[in-house]
Amino acid sequence: MAGISRQAISTRWANEHACVTYLFRRRWPLGFKCPFCGTVQKEVAPAYTVVCRYCRKQTSITAQTLMHGSKKELTDWLQ
Questions:
Q1: Which pTM does this prediction carry?
Q2: pLDDT (tens place) for every residue of the chain, 79 residues total
Q3: Helix, strand, or coil here: 16?
Q4: What does each C-alpha distance from 73 to 42, 49, 56, 67, 68 come to in angstroms?
């Protein structure tokens, strides 16, 4: 991220909730889209693990990324 200071990065992703919200909105900008049934749910609150209201399957914001299964906290990944 060129042009952003280390201070700004530390402030933007200061806690786990801020990281979860950021990743959720980056992954599903138009609302949560279930990777199993394809249903879009716009009223889902950002969370690390999301359960589809229709097929009841779970997915996470880090699924199919380098962060998936990592022991590192999201704050460390994003900073």
A1: 0.73
A2: 455 666 655 666 778 888 888 889 999 999 999 999 999 999 888 888 999 999 999 999 888 877 777 777 777 767 7
A3: helix
A4: 27, 15, 26, 9, 11
Tokens of 41: 């749910």
18-27 LR contacts (CB < 8 Å, sep 24+): 19/74, 19/75, 19/77, 19/78, 20/46, 20/47, 20/48, 20/61, 20/74, 21/46, 22/78, 23/61, 23/62, 23/74, 23/78, 24/50, 24/61, 27/61
